[in-house]
């Protein structure tokens, strides 16, 4: 038995970890275990994949094939998105959908039906999965596609690992000319202005907004909207044109120790939010940045979860229909502000059409989705219970990959 926990560091459980370096070993383990869950790199924020008996997919980390003509890569489920990027970017391809970290496994991405900053235009990862092999409880390995074993295919995508262990995945990729993003950053004075900007710029492939959840009054929900498109070769300067498909750096700054619990408080978060908002001096800024900066800003800081201290943290992420509108978001942001339990990171995105190619447990559905990080405390759990009521009133939904308390 060993102590296991995910990125939020809460909860911590004792578990037996099983690993397999071959299909035969994996089949044998599954046949001999009555109750088990698959687990990838443990980067989800909540209690997903935590069970007394865990099958770790990290040793299933081999690439199987890369069809450059069709733009399809096939690999084992324990391969990280960062490793896929290292293979595909130099060849002029990018992930069709990516979350805010590249250090998750492709199997975990399928099990959670991950979404990204482009859901409103290009959907979730479910739309780009050609097939996967699934190891079920009988020890049988089933190849699943939209046509063959289609019910199992749908129930596995976003099914949180409940249908079996994903062994391999075939994923369709996106073609790119460069590894850079043309970014447009726009400051919004409050939540109403931000929602108008989302509507005005909905044609952009990528969009995400950082929100100050402690600002009140006329500045309630002040924010910065960050839009993005993959840069064309001619849009790069001469220096970047020499290496247009530059990979991300593997260097990281490290948080060397667990921060004391008092470091993150209302005042430090308020100061942080003020600096982030004021850092952008102009109303609008246009620049070209690397994909690592745009998609994975926190990946450059190793062990950044330690800033929350030993108690850990949780991310509360919900989606509510567009019809619920600004009023519901204002109610939620106001409740957070009044509680003085500021979220260190608050991110708002929009979702496009509902996904019919995934499990009923799958998260993305058309509407606004807000993700909020909170340090674990009784006070925060009370606040989240109150936020639940608003989400339910709006006929919304919580994200199982982030949830630790629902």
Notes on the protein architecture:
By secondary structure, the protein is α+β, with helices and mostly antiparallel strands. 45% of the residues are buried. The model has no long low-confidence stretch (mean pLDDT 93).
**Content-based structural category:** alpha+beta
Question: What is the topology, as strand order, of the major beta sheet?
Answer: 16-12-14-13-19-20-18-21
Distance between the termini: 27 Å
Q: What share of the residues does DSSP label as strand, in percent? A: 25-35%
Low-confidence stretches: none
Indicate the radius of gyration in whole angstroms.
21 Å
Number of helices: 11
Total strand segments: 21
Largest sheet report:
8 strands, antiparallel
Report the average pLDDT across residues.
93
Helix content: 10-25%
What is the 3D form?
Answer: globular
Which structural traits does this protein have?
five-stranded antiparallel sheet; 21 strands; alpha+beta; 11 helices; eight-stranded antiparallel sheet; single chain; 406 residues
What does this entry show, briefly?
The chain has 406 residues and is an alpha+beta fold. It has eleven helices and 21 strands.
List the helices and strands and how they pair.
Blueprint lengths: L1 E3 L8 E7 L3 H10 L4 E3 L13 E4 L6 E5 L4 E5 L4 H8 L4 E2 L11 H6 L7 H4 L6 E7 L5 E4 L5 H7 L8 E8 L1 E2 L4 E9 L2 H10 L5 E6 L11 E8 L7 H4 L11 E2 L11 H14 L4 E7 H5 L5 E2 L10 E8 L4 H15 L6 E6 L15 E9 L2 H16 L3 E2 L8
Parallel strand pairs: 2-4, 3-4, 15-17
Antiparallel strand pairs: 1-2, 5-6, 6-10, 7-11, 8-9, 8-10, 12-14, 12-16, 13-14, 13-19, 18-20, 18-21, 19-20
